[in-house]
């Protein structure tokens, strides 16, 4: 399948999920996750109209950035080691995996301008996943105030690995609830208007539950390695 074909199919599903829940499809941004595919395939995605690219390793992001440059917006979506921040900080538009103060400090120090960050929350509390526990998130966000190069644009989560669609839905709902708690704080540096949630297997549920950024790898660009 071409990326174009996949993208059309996905947009149709998004539109239907929006119709079911009275949302505007324009509020949902598709991040093409290209970590499993070549630069050529990433290029095909851009030619098909994708404007957001996500990578989870600094090497992968830098290799693709070299070719695609600033024609697209760059999203760092994986665990980010503090020592890698300096490699990517001038290239990325969004970091989806802010989950500790030491990382916030490093981003703050290395950045030359404000960086849009999602605070990653491990709503499902699976040990294998990174991110803050739900009940730690508000105090964590409060403690980001001194790091003035960080803007908390939203929250990010990964749903549990399960076939149980209701468990997945509950996870996304909890993130939405937490977003409302953060917004109620009225922090200038944490408008928290966005929700990064939903991947290939669960993006329709995520859209129904309020996602504004969905991160699609396999279903959009496929998996070559
Ligand atoms: C790999 C990855 C994705 C995309 O996964 P697919 O299931 O292939 O869509 C989304 N988010 C994160 C954080 C990832 O690491």
UniProtKB/TrEMBL annotation:
<comment type="function">
    <text>Pyridoxal 5'-phosphate (PLP)-binding protein, which is involved in PLP homeostasis.</text>
</comment>
<protein>
    <recommendedName>
        <fullName>Pyridoxal phosphate homeostasis protein</fullName>
    </recommendedName>
</protein>
<dbReference type="InterPro" id="IPR011078">
    <property type="entry name" value="PyrdxlP_homeostasis"/>
</dbReference>
<keyword id="KW-0663">Pyridoxal phosphate</keyword>
<feature type="modified residue" description="N6-(pyridoxal phosphate)lysine">
    <location>
        <position position="35"/>
    </location>
</feature>
<feature type="domain" description="Alanine racemase N-terminal">
    <location>
        <begin position="30"/>
        <end position="222"/>
    </location>
</feature>
<dbReference type="InterPro" id="IPR001608">
    <property type="entry name" value="Ala_racemase_N"/>
</dbReference>
<dbReference type="InterPro" id="IPR029066">
    <property type="entry name" value="PLP-binding_barrel"/>
</dbReference>
<dbReference type="Pfam" id="PF01168">
    <property type="entry name" value="Ala_racemase_N"/>
</dbReference>
<comment type="similarity">
    <text>Belongs to the pyridoxal phosphate-binding protein YggS/PROSC family.</text>
</comment>
């Amino acid at each position: 399948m071409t990326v174009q074909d996949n993208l059309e199919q996905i947009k149709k599903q998004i539109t239907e999920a929006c119709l079911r829940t009275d949302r505007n499809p324009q509020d949902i941004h598709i991040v093409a996750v290209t970590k499993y595919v070549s630069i050529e395939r990433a290029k095909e995605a851009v030619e098909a109209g994708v404007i957001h690219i996500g990578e989870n390793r600094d090497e992968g992001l830098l290799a693709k950035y070299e070719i695609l440059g600033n024609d697209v917006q760059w999203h760092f979506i994986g665990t980010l080691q503090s020592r890698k921040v300096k490699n990517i900080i001038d290239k990325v538009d969004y970091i989806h995996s802010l989950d500790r103060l030491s990382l916030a400090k490093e981003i703050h120090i290395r950045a030359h301008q404000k960086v849009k960050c999602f605070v990653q929350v491990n709503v499902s509390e699976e040990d294998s996943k990174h991110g803050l526990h739900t009940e730690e998130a508000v105090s964590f966000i409060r403690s980001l105030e001194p790091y003035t190069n960080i803007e908390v644009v939203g929250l990010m989560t990964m749903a549990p690995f399960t076939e149980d669609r209701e468990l997945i839905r509950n996870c996304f709902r909890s993130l939405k609830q937490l977003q409302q708690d953060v917004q109620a704080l009225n922090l200038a540096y944490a408008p928290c208007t966005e929700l990064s949630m939903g991947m290939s297997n669960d993006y329709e549920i995520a859209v129904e539950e309020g996602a504004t950024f969905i991160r699609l790898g396999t279903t959009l660009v496929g998996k070559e390695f």
